[in-house]
Amino acid sequence: MSEILLEANGLSKDFPAGGGRKIHAVSDVSLRVYRGETLGLVGESGCGKSTLGRLLIRLLEPSGGELFLSGENVTAMKEKEFRRYRRQFQMVFQDPYASLNPRMTVRDIIAEPLKTWHICPTKEETTKKVLELMEAVGVPGEFLLQYPHQFSGGQRQRISIARAIAMDPALIVCDEPVSALDVSVQNQVLNLLNRLKKERGLTYLFISHDLSVVRHISDRVCVMFLGRIFEVARTEDLFSHPLHPYARFLMNAIPVPDPHRRDENKQILTGEPPSPVNPPSGCCFHTRCPYASEKCRREVPALRDMGGREVACHYPGIADEGYVHRL
Q1: 3-state secondary structure of 96
Q2: Contacting residues for 167 by C-beta, under 8 A, at least 6 apart
Q3: Which of 79, 97, 172, 173 has fewest C-beta within 10 Å?
Q4: H/E segment holding residue 108
Q5: 293-324, pLDDT tens digit by residue?
Q6: Which residues pair with residue 223 across a beta bridge?
Q7: In this structure, are residues 63 and 86 in contact, taking their beta carbons and an 8 Å threshold?
Q8: pLDDT at 262
Q9: Is 197:17 a contact under the CB 8 Å cutoff?
Q10: Which sequence spans correspond to the domains of the chain?
Q11: How far is residue 327's CA from residue 290's CA, in Å, rounded to a whole number?
Q12: Which CATH class, in words, describes the domain spanning 4-88+167-256+263-326?
């Protein structure tokens, strides 16, 4: 994972909230996505994960910042110029029923991007390609002319994945792709995504609030809070030794199916997250952080390299082993 596929510098997105106010959904986010990796994106509901995912593939236009694909600044491109890059970005949405047109057959759903980009010149070649994609995701070809309502949730999500890989994209944003599925079906879809990644050299941005799922599928994990990045680390490093206090609170919140550990005293995050319309000054986490100082209230911490990971925190003892165990 040495080649940078996608790089965001200072990416921000504001939405109007009425009365001249703005919702600061994403604030000054800088991150790198490496070719061939799965980058997990976690955080509380409403922290800006889905907005960031859409910004990274320009489904939303940023309010500020720049986005580079293989070194080229795609935010500076006009729509006509950006069109040749559009096919390199795809998305798998959370609700596979809402993301599929109920009036279209499976064939037409998967064939739509092929037609848009004139990949297959004839109807016969299009059908052949659709059948190949259906086979790749485990949907039998006999269902070619059926409609979305005739499938289960897991099958519909497989159809969504087939549509996403039809263009051989460089990056697929998976926005909560298994949260609406049963646990057994979740595992099947995750294994499918991993297999397609190996076979086709795909790169994923995997958005989820389920930390166990993120741990299973991700190479690195990015932790967000109120539109900002707090920590980026290799998956096992983050889950075994989180540095940022907020990341530690997230790890503490993971349920452990062990009755002998039921009475363990874990510090759990309390209080409500601040409003994105009126975020706190300085570090936006300082109102809930037990280690907040006056500097945290004044200055926004920058992401800094801390031995193979990046952390945005002012706390001077953050790299101390004892600090983690005191949380």
Answers
A1: coil
A2: 87, 88, 90, 113, 114, 117, 119
A3: 79
A4: helix 106-116
A5: 999 999 999 999 988 899 999 987 675 655 55
A6: 42, 231
A7: no
A8: 64
A9: no
A10: 4-88+167-256+263-326
A11: 9
A12: alpha beta
